[in-house]
Amino acid sequence: MARQFDRVCEVLTALGYLATHDGEVKVTGQGRRLMRLYSELDLVAAECLRTGLWDELTVPELAAVLSVLVFEARRPDDASPPRVPGGQVRDVIKEMVKLWGQLDALEREHHLDFLRQPDAGFAWAAYRWAEGDELDDVLEVVELAAGDFVRWMKQLLDLAGQVADASGDGPLRETARGVVTAVRRGVVAYSGLGDED
Predict the structure, then answer these.
(1) Torsion sign across C-alpha atoms 75, 81, 82, 88
(2) Distances in Å between the alpha carbon of 142 and those of 58, 72, 79, 91, 139?
(3) Spatial separation of the C-alpha atoms in residues 53 and 66, rounded to whole Å
(4) Could you say which of 53, 57, 107, 132 would form a disulfide bridge with 61 (CB–CB 3.0 to 4.6 Å)?
């Protein structure tokens, strides 16, 4: 376990999230940003923040690209590719997958394997919902039960809040907050009334 911890620290140091000074390991400014992200793919999210990959996105576009970091499909390997919004969303998702590949390779160099591949299977639904479409219209496009849709949206809400917190002052913070506002409506908002979080 201690060796695995050391390997994680090596990866974080290689990426600039940790630094060693006089033999002491310290968290860098970028590392403090990473500490505000708690998703399974938090390292991918942190790298997207660092590179400014999400800076020019609209609210529905950011909802779509964040969804690839929280969603994990249960579909067969021979299933057709998921429907993804075009334009900037498609380009940013491609860059996110490329970033994931670089991080995955770095982890493997250090004998780690934590990062699962981003999954674009919910991007279209997240985009449409953030645009204001009705639940029935969104569910017609994606093969999900309403309960699963709400569960994934709640995870998207959580990540959008984390991104708003981690992004610092600027337009991305406002866009991420806009995602929270746009997504927390209808059945998604109603489902949270009994939650304690």
Answers:
(1) positive
(2) 22, 14, 13, 21, 5
(3) 11
(4) 57
Q: Model-level pTM greater than 0.85? A: yes
H or E element in which residue 21 lies: strand 18-21
**How is residue 147 written in tokens?**
């309960």
Nearest to 119 by CA among 87, 155, 88, 171: 155
Helices (H), the chain: 2-14, 29-34, 42-51, 59-70, 88-109, 123-131, 135-141, 146-166, 171-183, 186-191
Both tokens of residue 113? 């394997």
pLDDT of residue 3: 82
Which pLDDT score is estimated for 191? 74
Note the pLDDT tens digit of each residue in 74-128.
Answer: 765 656 778 899 899 999 999 999 999 999 999 999 989 888 999 999 999 999 9
Query: Closest by alpha carbon to 131, among 83, 162, 85, 172?
Result: 85
Tokens encoding 11: 């990866």
pLDDT above 70: residue 193: no
Note the helical H segments in 28-115. Answer: 29-34, 42-51, 59-70, 88-109
Interatomic CA distance for residues 197 and 194, integer angstroms: 9
Closest to 33 measured CA to CA, from 141, 142, 166, 162: 166
Amino acid letter, residue 183: V
